[in-house]
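Reminder to self: keep the SMILES exactly as supplied, no canonicalising. Ligand is zinc ion.
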Amino acid sequence: MSETASTSDVSFTEQLYLLSTVVPFQGRRVNRITQRWLLGRMRLLDGIALLLCTGVKREAVAVTYESTGAGIKLFYCKNRPCDATEKSYAAGLLEIVKNAVLYENCVVSIMDYIIPECQSKIKSRLGKLVKEVSKLQKSSPGGKISVSPSANFDKHIRVTLANSVPSDMSMESFLQVVMDFAEKLPLDNFGLVGDLMEMTYFIGLARDIHTVIPHPALVWRLKKFGEFFGAAKNIAWITLFDREVSARKKLITLTEICPAPPVTETITGDSIQILNRFAESIGTEPVTLEALKTAYDDFQAPPGLPIEANPEAFKEIECSVHCELTLLVFMVQRRLETRKKQYVSMTIELGTSKSTCWTCQAYMNHLESCYATPINCDIPHKSLHDLHCVVSDYSGKITADWRMPTYCPEKNNWLLPGALVSIKIQHILAHIHELQQCDSEWELCSNEALPDGDDYMEMASDSDSTTIIGMGDIVTNGSSDDEFLKQISGLFLSGMGLNRSDLRG
Ligand SMILES: [Zn+2]
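C-alpha cells returned for the bound complex:
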C-alpha cells in the first residue's frame, strides 16, 4: 500500500456508495444519556421532529431549540428546503400548542391534525408492523402469536386504556385483537389509526413488555408505531404542565432553517470497479468480485446497477446535507456570533425523526474535536468550547446520499468523514488481500484477526486519543488487533503528514 494515498479519481460520493454496498451497517449505538431530564427532553425533540415528517419516502426532520428570556425558539429543518404547504403545516401545529387549555383536548387536537398530514410515514411504520405480525402469525400454531401477559401488564393496560378493553376480555385476547386490528386497519379511517397508535404506545410502555411479547422485532415495531401518539402526549404535557414552558407558551416560535439544496452526483462503474479504481489510486493490487463476496457477507449488488463488468454503468444519486447537520452548523455559528456573553453554552440537543447515520456521527465527532478546548478559539473565554452534540441514537448506517456541510473547520483533518471513509476502504482492501494470502498459504485463517469495518472510529478513540472524539463504546481489542490498527493508522496518518504524537496534543 502506498504511503501517500491519493484518491482523487474516486469521488467521495463513489466511496460512500461503495461502503453502502459492502459494509452498510456499522452497528447501532444508543447515545448513553444518563440524566433523566435530558432523556425526557430528547424524547420531546425527537417527537416534534417526527410530527413534522409530512413528506414522501425517506423524509427526515431535525429539531433544536434555544430558550432565552425572550421566549422559546424552536428551529427545524429537512434534508431539502420546505415548500409553502410544509411551512404552513408546521405553523398550524404550533398554533394548536399555543392555544392549548386542556391536556386531553390538546392531545386529540394534535392527533387529528397530524394523522392526515403524516400519512406517508404512518403507512410506512404500519406496513412494517403488519409485516412483522403476519410473519409471526404464519409461523405460529393456529395463527396465534405467543404472548404471556402478566398481572402487572393487565393492570397497566386496564388503567391506561380503560375505555378500550372490555372488563371480561383477557389480556391475551386483547393483544391478539390489537394485532389483527393492525393487519386490517383501513388507513383512510384516521380515527381508528389514532386509536391503534394509542394502544401500541401504551403496550410498548409496559415495563415487562419483553416478557409479555417475547418477540423483540414485534415489540420494536409496536413502539415505533406508537411513537406518534407518544409525541403528541409529550408535547401536550410539556406545554401545559411544565412550569417554564406553560408560562411562556405564547412566546414559542418555530422557524425553518433552510438547508443547502441537494446536488446530483454521478457514480461511474459498479462497486468492484470503484474499489479497484481506488486500489489503483493508492498503488495496491486489485481484487476480484469473488474475493469481495467471500470477504463480506453483507455485500449485495444494489438494484439498478449491474455488478458484472460494465464500464458504462453509471447512476445518479441526489446528495443532501442531512438535516441534523444543517441545524448543528446553524447553532454553532449562531453561538459563535453571540460573543457578547462571557460564556457560551456548549451543548446542542438535536431531535431527529430517524436515527443519525454513521457519516453524520463522524462529522459531529469532527466538529466536537475542533471545539474541544478554548485553544481553538481566538477569544478563548468568550468563545464556543467543549462542544457537545446530543442525539438520541445513531443508526450506524452508511448511505451514499450524504453531503458535507460547507462549514467545516479544518483542524483535526484526520477525523473528517472523508478521511474515515477512505480509511475504511483501505481496510476492505487490506482485509481481502489478507484472506487471499491465507488461502494461498493453505492456512486456517480467522476473520477475527481483523477488526470489523467500524473499528476505525474506535481506533481513533483508543488510548492515545480518547479525549479527542468521545465516541460511544470503546472496543478493547486484543494486542494483535491493536497492532494491526496501529500499522494501518500509521500508514494513513503519514500520508496526511501527521503522526500519532500529533493526535495527543
Ligand atoms: Zn446523516
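Points to follow up:
The first strand starts at residue 29 and ends at 30.
The beta strands are 29-30, 61-68, 71-78, 252-256, 263-268, 314-319, 347-349, 351-352, 388-390, 393-394.
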